[in-house]
Amino acid sequence: MKRLIFGTAIIFIVAFSAFGQKAALGKADPAKGVREAFDRLIDGIKTVDLDKVMGVYDKNPKLLIFNNNGTATQGWDEVKNVNEKIYAKLSNVTLDITGLRVEMLGKTAAYVTCKWKQTQENNGKLEDSSGRMTLVFKLVGKEWKIIHRHTSPDASRLVFPSEREIKTEPTTSAGQIDLK
After folding, report:
1. Contact 41, 53 (CB under 8 A)
2. For 15-19, 23-27, 89-93, 112-116, which range has the lowest pLDDT when averaged over its residues?
3. What CATH class has 32-177?
4. For residue 115, with 0-12 CB atoms within 10 Å meaning exposed, 13-18 middle and 19 or more buried, which class applies?
5. Relative to the CA of 79, which of 24, 58, 92, 171 has its CA 20 to 30 Å away?
6. CB 28: neighbour CB atoms within 10 A?
7. Quick one: pLDDT at residue 80?
8. pLDDT(88) > 90
9. What are the domain boundaries of the chain?
10. Using an 8 Å Cβ cutoff, are 44 and 38 in contact?
11. What is the pTM of this model?
């Protein structure tokens, strides 16, 4: 009888332990995919890997980027064209992210905010800047993609010299747009 009670107790302990572990494993972090996409973006920037960076953005003509220099770029193709020109000149990029915050807006939308500090060589010339960034993510199929980015420099810091040189004209079509 003691063996039966002991055996039953062991079975209950193992069963409840397994159930507790399964319940804990079942509570998936809903922001995990967004953080992973953000990490791919940051890694792509640090390694100057344009394909990795562009892979995080939604390949859509409605993609809208508010740039660090006060301009805006619209459409995945135009964002890629602009970044191809910039990335061709970059090397030795360092990027520090602080204050990272991921907010889920439901099962298919989220936003990420953070502070950033970046140094880089542009055509061999050292540049540095810092600021804040907001990224809006949307679940596209099974992948989290950026549909909007807003980057602004710290008020006390200048934008990268190479970005100050970019001039844009107002337009109603996809491409560079000036929202002033």
Report:
1. yes
2. 15-19
3. alpha beta
4. middle
5. 92
6. 8
7. 97
8. yes
9. 32-177
10. no
11. 0.74
3-class DSSP state of 49 = coil
Q: Under DSSP, is residue 122 helix (H, G, I), strand (E, B) or coil?
A: strand
Nearest to 127 by CA among 77, 86, 173, 176: 86
Helix (H) or strand (E) holding 153: strand 143-153
**Cα–Cα distance between 127 and 161 in angstroms, integer?**
7
Which residue from 99, 73, 101, 98 is spatially nearest to 86, judged by alpha carbons? 73
Q: What is the rounded distance in angstroms from the CA atom of residue 180 to the CA atom of residue 5?
A: 78
Helix (H, G, I), strand (E, B) or coil at 77: helix
Copy the structure tokens of residue 8: 């039953």
Report the pLDDT averaged over residues 125-145: 96
AA identity, residue 38: F
**Dihedral in degrees, nearest 10, Cα atoms 159, 165, 169, 170:** 0
Q: What is the C-alpha separation between 112 and 107, in angstroms, rounded? A: 15
- Eight-state DSSP code of residue 7: H
- In 3D space, the residue among 157, 172, 163, 173 whose CA is nearest the CA of residue 82 turns out to be 163
